[in-house]
Amino acid sequence: MDRKKFLSTTGVLAxxxxxxxxxxxxHHYDNNGLDKLTDDKGTFIHLPLPYNKNFLEPYMDEExxxxxxxxxxxxxxxxxxxxxxxxxxxxxxxxxxxxxYWTRKLSHHFSSHVLHTIFWTNLxxxxxxxxxxxxxxxxxxxxxxxxxxxxxxxxAKDVDGNGWGILGYQPYSDKLTVMQCENxxxxxxxxxxxxxxxxxxxxxxxxKYKNKRTDFVDTLFSIxxxxxxxxxxxxxxxxx
Length: 240
What we know:
The chain is mainly alpha-helical. Helix content is 50%, strand content 10%.
């Protein structure tokens, strides 16, 4: 069985983009190079950063950005490819004793790949603020932008161990929602489309901010690319 057929028959093909490959959102971001997570054969790929490694100075230091993107994100991509290969091997050899282990590992590593890919595009080197439809939705669902900031910052700061604070769009309720994600895949909500992700794994901030996660999260609001968040929302809304 070739890789493309394996991914399709095992359902892993749905994990080759942020959304299933036939969705409007996945098509939009693949075409614009924002969320391209695989090559044409379905192999997970690790794209270069969309900016220089000193682009986010002084808010995020160059060394942290290099290590974070190269070894943590890059390591997750390599691991996800190994996980899918081991699943394929177990199915081909009809030896399913370890397939649950590799399936859990794929969930962890691929989720890391997705969230990191979004994270890099969520950042800029200048202060922006929500505009247009995004601002209207924030005010409707949270009362005000300031209230959302307090909410998502607190959610990210209080993650138990490593994880993420996430602002997403829930198409079933047609509302924005904030999630606290442990590791890369725990406490998620099915169907939610991530719009903004805040990485609070220690490797994201420890060189510059030491153990002061709260300072790092507060600083990130100086470089969040709300234009990118708004673009993600506008594309997600077309699914309705």
